[in-house]
Amino acid sequence: MLNQVAGSLQEKKGIYYAVLYHQLNGEWKRKWISTKIKAIKGNKKKAELKLDQIKKDFYNTLTNTKDTETTNILFVDFMKDWLKIIKHSIQSTTYMGYSKLINGRMSKYFTQNKLKLVELRPKHIQDFYEYLSEEGLSGNSITRYHANIRKALQYAVKTDLIESNPADKIEKPQKENYIAQFYVAEEIDKLFEVTKGTKIEIPVMFGAYYGLRRSEVVGLKWKAIDFDNKTITIEHVVVDIVTNGKREVIGRDSTKNKSSNRTLPLIPEIEAVLIALREKQKENMKLYKDSYNKKYKEYICVDDLGNLINLDYISHSFVKLLKKHGLKKIRFHDLRHSCASLLLKQGRNIKHIQVWLGHSNYNTTANIYGHLEVTEEMNTNANIMSNILNMNKGNQEEKEKVPVR
């Protein structure tokens, strides 16, 4: 927000300069403008008058520029500008999610509408949500759009681009209770068979055994595996983001949240596969020599030429492979749910699963898998009641067999 312009005269190289100070969005700026008047005796009064005029002209320029930008900026352009502003204050995975929403359907819809930021009304946002619904998006997906739009418009209010937030005046999209899909043990065994020897063999194994996210799987480095102490540490992730149409891979030594950084036991089946893979990678480095990409030699999930396996490649190849072999359709992320489901069936409680999967809090795990825990508990109750009543029935039958004397 522009408050005022202050100024004073300063001599520089024999010329009077107007040194202007103005406040923009709470931050003070300084600008030097020449009066073109020589700093000699008798000229100071003349320079002071020039200073007053320069201050007025500069203020009008700033005000008109601000008003013009506020009036003409398109809503879709504002959203993209907001994304650039917050890029360095959020995690790269969060930025990637925001970018997909803003540069995808939102950009397409509002670019066609040519709607300006100052013209945006609650009905425009509601119409956009109806469009998303017609496109087949779930209530949960539309809620993510709403969260982005509302947050961006809050910034617009804060910086005086608009007076109020139109997203606050519409009904928030209803989230749906998500029922996680999962494989049973027999289905996972079949999955291991059909992925053996493929690029996604390792990601699938880590997804099923440990419930790792894609970013955690691809982010695994050899130093994370402690073969002596039989542990695996999840502490590095890989994400790919699109900036100005260019895709780039970013690795960072921090997972989704503090709880996601975790050390787990090295499962024997995983250890055997990793030992064989490490030897294969050494052989590939010797075989392909200069053609081998040594940039990712620290990483576990690379192809034969040393290239890091792409996150989207894992998801797309996974779906294609299931279809090819006639397996039940699930997402790669559903291997995480399958892992949790198998642990529940073996009597592990929600707290144990929370730590294993690296959820930040108990409620997250409970909300996703609580119904499975209840189902298992109900089955146990049913077996207990069945055994009790059958036992009583058996005792009664034995009594009836005893002859009456």
Structural description of this entry:
The structure is a single chain. This protein has 405 residues and is of the alpha+beta class. Helix content is 54%, strand content 14%. The chain has 13 helices and eight strands. Strands 1-2-3 form a three-stranded antiparallel sheet, with helices on one face. Strands 4-5-8 form a three-stranded antiparallel sheet, with no helix packed on it. A hairpin with a 2-residue loop joins strand 2 and strand 3 (27-38). The mean pLDDT is 84.
Kindly list the characteristics that best describe this protein:
3-stranded antiparallel β-sheet, alpha+beta, 405 residues, elongated, 13 helices
Short overview:
By secondary structure, the chain is of the alpha+beta class.
Beta-strand proportion: 5-15%
- Global outline: elongated
Spatial strand order of the main sheet: 1-2-3
Structural class: alpha+beta
Distance between termini?
104 Å
Q: Characterize the biggest β-sheet.
A: 3 strands, antiparallel
* β-strand number: 8
Could you name the ranges where pLDDT drops below 50 across 5 or more consecutive residues?
none
How do the SSEs run, as a string of H and E? EEEHHHHHHHHEEEEEHHHHH
Helix content: 40-55%
Mean pLDDT: 84
What's the helix count? 13
Radius of gyration: 32 Å
